[in-house]
UniProtKB/TrEMBL annotation:
InterPro entries: CEP112
Protein name in UniProt: Uncharacterized protein
Domain of life: Eukaryota
This protein's UniProt keywords: Coiled coil
Coiled coil spans: 68-113
PANTHER family: CENTROSOMAL PROTEIN OF 112 KDA
Location of region: Disordered: 1-21
Length: 122
């Protein structure tokens, strides 16, 4: 490299030795090969990063789908439970209404009986 600097600066007017030119050309060739290899590695890394990103997107979408399915299942189960509770309370309400109706009929009947007995006693 020191010779190269002196060549550029023009300090030495003699032509460089053929071995030095060959060495420099070899270095340039090697550097080009290294650059091609580094560029290829860079492209490969970019491809791998793209694949990793796609895999992460798919994994996230699958997890989201799974979570939604779970929530839907829980909502459906809760809906079924609510319908069952509504049915049970409707049945209890009907029974309670019937008991109230029967008791009112009994009260009315007893009042009528009491009135008849009072009238009979007079």
């Amino acid at each position: 490299m020191a010779m190269h600097c002196s060549l550029v600066a023009g300090a030495d007017s003699s032509p460089p030795p053929p071995q030095t030119i060959a060495d420099l050309e070899s270095q340039v060739y090697k550097m080009k090969e290294d650059l091609v290899q580094v560029n290829a590695q860079h492209k490969q890394q970019l491809l791998e990063l793209g694949l990793l990103r796609d895999e992460e997107k798919q994994r996230t979408a699958a997890e989201h789908h799974k979570a939604l399915s779970k929530v839907r299942g829980e909502m459906e189960k809760a809906g079924v439970q609510l319908l069952q509770m509504e049915k049970e309370y409707s049945e209890k309400l009907a029974k309670t209404s019937q008991v109230i109706s029967d008791l009112q009929a009994s009260v009315t009947s007893l009042q009528e009986e009491s009135t008849r007995q009072q009238l009979s006693a007079e």
